[in-house]
Amino acid sequence: MRHSVRPDETMQALVFDGPGRLVLRSIPRPLPGEGEVLVRIHTAAICGSDLRIVAGTKTRDVRVGHPIGHEGAGTVAAVGAGVREYQPGEAVAVCVVESCGRCACCLAGRENLCDGRRTLGYHTDGAFAEYMLIPSHAVARGNLFKLPASVDLAWAPLIEPLACCINGQEEMGLSPDSDSADASWPESLVIFGAGPIGLMHLLLARARCGTRLRQVVVVEPRASRREIALRLGAEETCGPEEFKATERFDAAIVAVGVPELASVAVNAVRRCGRVSLFAGFPVKSVATIDPNAIHYRQVRVYGASESRRSDFAAALALAAGGKLDLAALVTHRFPLAEHDEAFRLAADGSALKVVLDIRP
Q: What is the pLDDT of residues 52-62, one digit of tens each?
């Protein structure tokens, strides 16, 4: 075993003790076993799903009494026996969907829907801690990505949600690999929500589709976020109460968990339009959609969940190549000890992406 930590050492970690209870606690520092890698977390970003966990509205796969957090990056601290491809000190980011590689979904290239999928940070101890242990199967599957020098650990955790956005846009055909001569290529897009994910979709669409995507409109209730959307490449923004468009856009992305927007998005797209229900919606949500709008106009509705390693690789390549500015989405940074304020700002909407700085 090659490592630089002692077996009797502890670490600071944000432990989820139940709804409304996120506690900074000293817990044993893990040591990597055979095939495992221990990552010294430098930065970890707060995701909307983390907010739902703390609020008690997301319970699936959540383990009480363990650290949470799945958007993390850092450096290799130690490796277990048999690990040759990673060395202590290397900068890495974590692709959190651990797939089996054998089920029908994995074999079809949809490992994000794997029958035996585990999500690191949910099924395992997460990134809101000084150290995160990457299981041997995840290491063997290639879930730990080395970061080139052009990727700053300060914003590297955002590669994970960017990968999820890539999966969503690929699923709905908003991809640079699409045939530019295809008459169905989306030339106009409406994005509902200008939070971190909605703005990330905006940056991604602009970076990958270029001039073929002629117009992007962002619908967002907060004026401050509408201004940011304009700076990041939207041609037009408006509040939800102002949005009356019907059959105007080629594509729509619902990037905020408001079920009623599913109907608005379906009505907003033209014949053969594409709608991505990207956001996570509250449990038992119900949306009323006119089925004839889908039937007669042949509107295509897509879901999107998590990401694949190929999406993570694509996100890393975009970020490393300077194709989009993920740092522009980071508005607040806090040390681990100030997690209460960090989560408060992330939850009340006054921040965009909030990052916990866990560097030594």
A: 899 888 878 88
